[in-house]
Amino acid sequence: MNVRRSAAALAVVGVLAAAAPATAAGPSPSASPKVSIPSGLYGKADPTYDGVWRQSLALLAQRTLGYRPAAGAVDWLTGQQCANGAFAAFRAAPAKACDSAVKPDSNSTAAAVQALKAVGGRGGAVAKAVGWLKSVQNKDGGWGYYPGGPSDTNSTSVVIGALAAAGTDPADVRKSGKSPYDALPAWSIPCGQDGGGALAFQPDKKGKLLANADATAAGVLGALGKGFVTEAGKAPAEDACTKAAHPAPAQVADNAGAYLASAVARTGHLKSTLPGAKDQPDFGNTADAVVALAADGRTAQAKKAYAWLEENATQWAAQSGPAAYAQLVFAAHAVGARPADFGGTDLVRSLNAQGPAPRPEKAAGQEKAEASDDDSGTGVWWIVGVGLVAGISIGFLLSSRRKRQP
After folding, report:
1. What pTM, to 2 d.p., does this model score?
2. In this predicted model, what pLDDT tens digit does every residue of 380-398 receive, in sequence order?
C-alpha cells in the first residue's frame, strides 16, 4: 500500500498548508540515495522516508509467495526497532537511541509487525511493537501517523491490520472506551452526499469529509479487520451505498467498496489525488483498490482493475522498487492470479532481485523428502541385496548338505 507515504505526505501537507488529502503514486522519494544503502535492505533508492515500510512489504510479499526471506533482510528490519518497541521510517544509525531526530510512527511500526509476524521467530519484537501501538492510541479509538497527531483512516487501518496479524482483536483495543471500529465510521461519507460511501483521510479544518481513494481502500481492509495480505471475501448483499445512521464496520467496508467499484468501473484504474498533480493514473492506489475490492467480495471489479495493472504497471513497478512490486503481489494474491506471469513480467523474480535472495519455503521440505526417498531407496536395495546374499548362502548350504548325505 501507499499508506505510509500517503499518511506522511498528508501529515506534512496538513502542517504546512492544511491541504486536501493526497497520495504518492510515483517512484520512491529519491533515485539518488542521500545515505548509503545498508546490507540487507531491499531497494536502491534513498531509504530515509520509507526504509522500514518497503522492507516490511517486501518480506511480507515473499512470505505470501512461499519464500523464506534471507536472514540478513529480517535482521535488518528487526534491528530498526527502537527500545520502546516502535519503528521509525529509517534509522541510519540503529545503535543510537530513537529521539526527536528519529521519530517513530504508527505506519512503519504496523507494517513491521505484519512482516515480522509472517516470517516467524520474532515474537518478542512483535509483542513490543504491538505494546507501543496500544500505548499511542488516541481517545477516539484511532491512530495518527505520529504519536499525538490526529487520527486518520490510513494509519488506523494499517494498525488494525497489525493487531489482527498479531492475534489481537482490534475491537478489544480501546482508549477512553473506544476502539478503532468506533473511529472508522466517523470518516465514512454518508450515502447521497458527494463521494458517498468513500472514506476521507480525516476531516478538513471545517470538519468536512472529502472522498479519498487511498484512504477508502485502506478503510475497507481496516473495517474488515484485514492486513495487507487477503483473499477474496463474500460478495456484499448490495452493490450500492446503503444508508445507515450508525454503520457497523462491515457496512462501512461495503459502502467503501461500492465507491471504489464505481471509481474503477469506466477506466479500470484510479487517478492521482496528489495536490497539484496532473490528471493521471495512480498505479499504487489502483493496486490497493484491487486488494480492497477483492476483500469486500467485489471480484469482478477487482479483476478488471488488476487486468489494467497488468497492461500498464510494469514500468511503474520497475521505477518504484520493492514496495511497488509487493503491492502488485498482494493484488495478484487477492484475485487469485499468477504473480509469476504479470503481463509478461515475473513479479516473483523482480521482487526477489531487489535485495538478498530468499529461499523457497519448500526447499527444506523437499530436501528432507529427497533425503528420505534416498534413504528409503537405499534401504530397499540393502534389504534386497541382503536377501539375495542370504538366499545364495542358503542355497550353497543346502547343496553342501545334499552332497554330504550318503
Report:
1. 0.84
2. 444 434 444 444 444 433 4
